[in-house]
Amino acid sequence: MKKKLNSILLIDDDEDCNFFHKRLINRMDIADEIKVSLDGEEALNYLKSTKDGKHPQPAIIFLDINMPKIDGWEFLEEYEKLDDMQKAKVVLIMLTTSLNPDDMERAKKNPLVHDYFNKYLDTERIQKVIDKYFSDYL
Amino acid sequence: MNYLQDELQDLIRFDDSVLEFIRDAPLDGLYYWDLVNPVNDWIDGKLSQSLGFRHKKITDVPTIWRDIIYPEDRKVLESTLDKHLKDDEYPIDMVIRYRHQNGSLVWFSYYGKLIKEESGKPVGVLGVHIDITKFIERENELSIAEEQFRGAFEHSALGMALVSTEGKWLKVNKKICNIVGYSEKELLAKTFQDITHPEDLDADLNQVKQLLDDKIAGYEMEKRYFHKDGHIIWVLLNVSLVRDVNRNPVHFVSQILDITERKRTEEELRQVTDRLALALKGSKIGTWEFDVVNNVLIWDEAMFKIYGVPTDKFTHAYDAWKNTLHPDDLDQAELEVQLAIAGEKEFNTEFRVIWPDNSIHYIKGLALVQRDHKGNPIRMLGTNFDITEEKKLEETQRMMAANESKRKEMEQFAYITSHDLREPLVTIQRYLGGFLEDYGQAIDDDARHYIEASVRASNHMQELIVGLLDYSRLSKEKEIKVVDSNEVLNSVIEDLNALIDSTDAVITAENLPVLKAYPLELKLLFQNLIQNGIKFRRKETIPRIQIQAKQIAGGWQFSFADNGIGIREKDFEKVFTLFRRLHNKSEYEGSGIGLAYVKKIVEIHHGKIWLESSPGKGSTFYFSVLTESL
Fold first, then answer.
1. pLDDT band for position B152 (50/70/90)?
2. Would the ipTM clear 0.90, i.e. be above it?
């Protein structure tokens, strides 16, 4: 039997969006924990935190670009400096409603970014990510 | 008293001839020379003075004939005395020079008389002196002047000649021989009339007559001579007349400067000026000249045309120009003139003038200021030309540029707006969807209908926004590539698979080319036209779309023919208008963007789009892609 992902981190200032995505992931029942950070700084603190001597190390980070304080791009700059043990285990995916081709190009060029989606996520897209990067899992 | 003086007094007293001699001579000095005892000469006060001695009477001076006399002249004097001794008739009459006490030579005309004893033995010479030094000096000066004149004449850079009153060359210098090509001998055998150009002869002879009649002191003219080898030489001739003491004409003095080269240059300049005038005539450039000193403004013909002023209505004063100026430009234009005259700024300006018919014309003015040797302005020379057309063009271009930037702003605005609109819309869509998923079973049909209508509306809005976004994004920079339009079509068919399957649409294509195009846009163009062809199908009819292409001048022409509902002719133009829909939503869904988008894509390919259609039978859309200019 395949196992669930340990945790998924949603980084987005849009609470409606977070609510919707949390609901979607819950319904798919693929992760033990869904953590929500409302901005980049909060997310970085979370990634650096320890519990029982271990960093949270989520399986997937869904990152929004347009955010107050630290935006998606700035978050990536700081994220790059983290220990490997602090970074997400497998994938980092960006989420945005931006249709700006410049943003798309920028995301493609960033090696930290595994894939690029427009908001909102839906069941199919999440399933594709799981199939592609977590074939051992659900 | 000197014994000789006693003796001389005796002589004068007793010998009539001595007294007579003395009386007749206009004397500047007298001496009596003792031939028996030559140490003791006697000279009178006048001579002593003439020779620069301080005292009128001197007794102890060295003998003048031995020490002061010019050595050459002493020899002559001695030989003259010898000759006189032998022959009484031989005159003692010569020029004697003495050394003056200040070292200079003093010239005397000298006459001597030999004094003899009764036995006939010569005992002394009585000499009288007439000072001719001044005369000699003047003569010397004259001969120096003559020498100088000769040198100047012969070596002058000007041609110089003495010409008889009849016109015969009397004396000519080398230069004039060079100018006319004759040797001196040849020229002296001719008259000036012989080598003067017939057209210039009368004018010259007329001047000669006036000069001979003493009406003018001299004259200067430009005239032509024939060179010995036949060609024409232009000279500047300057003539004066030499008269004798009675004012009778003796001969002419002519100076001649070869100005052939200058004349040639002038002629060339004149031709250039003529050509320039001709060119100016065609180019509508006016030229003007402003006499700063006398306040006279001269315009050429073109100027009057440029200012629309009749020739006879112009006073040629500076103010006449000023009065034509547009009041708003008057101050600046005047300032420019003043600055140019002051030498502070080049005159290169633009201003408006108002024609008598009140029309406004733009003028460009350029000018130079001519100054005298002190730097004072004398004249301004300038050009004017009408730049009204250029100004209009500039204005149009400025407006076009403004429109272009406004259009870009609008596009940017559309882009940002649509992007921002999209975000909340997506949230609405997702939440409505989530609501139906979570509570769909718990609500009744009416409630579900409300939600479903909201979903449809927001989906439509989504379509509009995406369409607007695409449309606005079209004018952004894109890359031209070589595209195989067959591949483009295949990719479109693949994307439209669901629509094609559900309608059993048949799409055929012939002769699709490989061409230069914006790949993504071309695909969207194909996609929109095919989608429309399927969307606007007739009920109960299988949609068929036939695509063709042919080469035309400068690129390719495509046609997309369908068998759909068709379009009325009066709507041919409307279909390409943004947000214009011909059908209500219940019949045919659409954003009203598709064909406007299509048209814009065709335009960025420098092409045109048009259609043929008959309602109920189908439509054919044609568009061109001008690959050569891409």
1. confident
2. no
Cβ atoms B604, B474 nearer than 8 A: yes
Shortest Cα distance, chain A CAs vs residue B439, angstroms: 14
User: A97–B422: do the CB atoms touch at under 8 Å?
Assistant: yes
Mean pLDDT for back-to-back runs of 10 residues, chain A (138 residues): 82 89 91 92 92 89 84 88 83 64 78 83 87 79
The beta-carbon neighbor of A97 closest among B426, B431, B434 is B426
Is a pLDDT exceeding 70 seen at residue B205?
yes
Do residues B585 and B477 make contact, with C-beta atoms less than 8 angstroms apart?
no
Q: Is B89:B39 a contact under the CB 8 Å cutoff?
A: no
Cβ neighbours for B201, distance < 8 A, ≥ 6 positions apart: B193
Lowest mean pLDDT among B16-25, B76-85, B269-278, B563-572: B16-25
Which pLDDT band holds residue B33 (cuts at 50, 70, 90)? confident
pLDDT at B476: 61
Cβ contact B224:B195 at 8 Å: no
Nearest to A17 among B422, B427, B469 (CB): B427
DSSP state of B196: B
Which of A23, A101, A119 shows the shortest C-beta gap to B434? Answer: A23
**Residue B238, pLDDT score:** 93
Determine the residue of chain B that is closest to A21 in CA distance.
B430
Chain B contact present for A100, CB below 8 A: yes
B431, A119: Cβ pair inside 8 Å?
Answer: no
**Look-up of token digits 């009596």:** B32
What are the structural domains of chain A? Answer: 5-132 (3.40.50.2300)
- Of the candidates B15, B101, B95, B2, which has an alpha carbon nearest to the alpha carbon of residue B42? B2
pLDDT tens-digit readout, B483-510: 999 999 998 998 888 889 999 999 999 8
Closest CA relative to residue B78, chosen from B92, B58, B61, B67: B92
Q: pLDDT band at residue B559, thresholds of 50, 70 and 90?
A: very high
Would you tell me the crossing angle of helices B519-535 and B594-604 to the nearest 10 degrees?
150
Run of H or E including A110: none
Residue of A nearest to B476 (CA): A101
- With bands split at pLDDT 50, 70 and 90, how would you rate the model's confidence at B202? very high
Instruction: List, for residues B92-124, the tens digit of each pLDDT value.
Output: 888 888 888 888 888 888 888 888 887 878 888
Q: Distance between CA B573 and CA B335 in Å, rounded?
A: 56
- Nearest to B41, CA basis, from B60, B27, B54: B60
| Interchain proximity B431–A16, CB inside 8 Å | yes
Which among A27, A120, A122, A125 is the top mutation candidate for probing chain B, defined by the most B β-carbons within 10 Å of its own β-carbon? Answer: A120
Q: Is B426 in Cβ contact with A99 (below 8 Å)?
A: no
Tokens of B466: 């995406």
CA–CA gap between residue B390 and residue B28 (Å, rounded) = 98
Q: Which domains does chain B have, with CATH numbers?
A: 3-138 (3.30.450.20), 156-264 (3.30.450.20), 284-386 (3.30.450.20), 392-470 (1.10.287), 477-629 (3.30.565.10)
